[in-house]
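Lab meeting, action items carried over

1. Structure of the two-component assembly. Owner: GW. Status: complete.
Input record:
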Amino acid sequence: MTRLGWLLVVFCLSLPVQAEDVVLGLSKDRVAITATFDGSEILVFGAVKRETAIPETPLHVIVTIAGPYKPIVVRRKDKRFGIWINTESTKIEAAPSFYAVATSAPWDEVITKSQDVAYQVSVARAIQARRTTHADAEQERFTQAVIRIRTDENLYQLLENKVTIDEQTLFRTSIEMPANLTEGSYDTRILLTRNGAVISTLNTEIDVRKVGLERFLFSLSREQPLIYGLLSLAIAIFAGWGASGLFSALRRS
Amino acid sequence: MQIYLPIAEVSVNAFLLLGLGGMVGVLSGMFGVGGGFLMTPLLFFIGIPPAIAVATEANQIVASSFSGVLAHFRRRTVDFKMGTVLLIGGLFGAAIGVVVFNYLKSMGQVDLLVRLCYVVFLGIIGSLMFVESLRAIQRSRSNVKVSFKRKQRNWVHTLPFKMRFRTSGLYISAIPPLIIGVAVGVLAAIMGVGGGFVMVPAMIYILGMPTKVVVGTSLFQIIFVTAFTTLLHATTNYTVDMVLAVLLLVGGVIGAQIGAQVGARLKAEQLRILLALLVLMVCGKLGLDLLMEPAELYSIASGAGH
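Predicted assembly:
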């Protein structure tokens, strides 16, 4: 085959990937953690842009939002001397502080295992992909524990059938973010799939920041811990003095 | 109303915290105790991370002790010299306590240490108080007057480095108060308490100080030791949550004043039995948590800084 022939094959193979593209909208690309922050709901919506006719096989959409990856230590309790204490521990180099996956159909229908490995869509894959060492069965149990605990805290969410698609073109979903969020940039991905294979992706970011008083106190406590400590003490002493003075004034009157 | 705590990074109900602060404040006013030993476990129960509960509670105790000591200043019932000796020991103790705390935190055992300290100390103090107040009630029923006499001479008087404490009317060695100070400082740093519940009996029974100066002097020492502890935790662990502290202390100082009024109308023995039961209940709950198999065996901690 000639070089031109090869080019033609490559072009034809890559054609379906470029045939459909995502146009995305977010209800907000910033989440501000204020003093009364009580979680947030983010609406992710968009459309599929295509030049050709709609293919026969059904289109599926996966939306993922991942919080900043941080190293964590996972510990397991065992019974020693009659009480339950932490014994075994393992370090996970990078686990997302928040991870939500919303799909337009049951998990097995939207993406195949090998595509999940390639694109690190599920939270288990996302954690494993960032391991530098090989995980044995024991470490696997620790990883599963992290997913279980964070799922209970609503920090890891698998939202099957939560993406609605209209006319194979318009899609939308809403993702609830809980109150105990950490700061950072939240990587947001949209994946289009057909027959379990990813045909198009789009990445964007949602910025989660403490603002106002929360921002001020947090920065002060990390950058000027001594001043922060002294300020805490000053407030405490003032409050104690104020309360004592106020109540003795009330009693006298 | 939910409020987001900037350091603890959790969202809690502000009224719950004000209420807790108020409730513990009422109790501390009624019983004349600092309340740290009740507040810190309660904070664990509502889901504040132990390291933050301990450090923040130290900050709150500064407020309640300062509020309390002012009245004692006016009545001149503070032995400054004794307080200073106790304080020197206390500062050493607090520093040791924070070092131990940080070491165990890196080992993942700080939870266990704090809980064990609580079970042991609450258990001992609660049982002693319970037995003692039962006896007191029996005595008052049988109407027999028992006069307590302070021991005039014990082993404390045989030690060297004697000092004269005018306000307390004592001439004793500086070593026992220093040791008591160190012990209380360690407890303050590890448990997030003022340590009055250990120091007050020690001052009466070991040092032989007159009862009227004991509370004021211990409050004087507690202010500085907990202030020092707060600073140590704030600068080494970044675990003092100012928003949490403010909510607790607003409830606390108001509650304490109400509690003092209520306490004046109740009988001392009955009050002490109630307090003893409360202490034993908290101790029981913490003890059970250690003994029973937890629903989740795994726990996650931040892996930074290793």
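2. GW to write a short summary for the group page. Key points so far: Confidence is low (pLDDT under 50) at residues 9-17 of chain A. Helices of chain A lie at 3-19, 107-110, 113-119, 123-129, 137-152, 212-223, 225-252.
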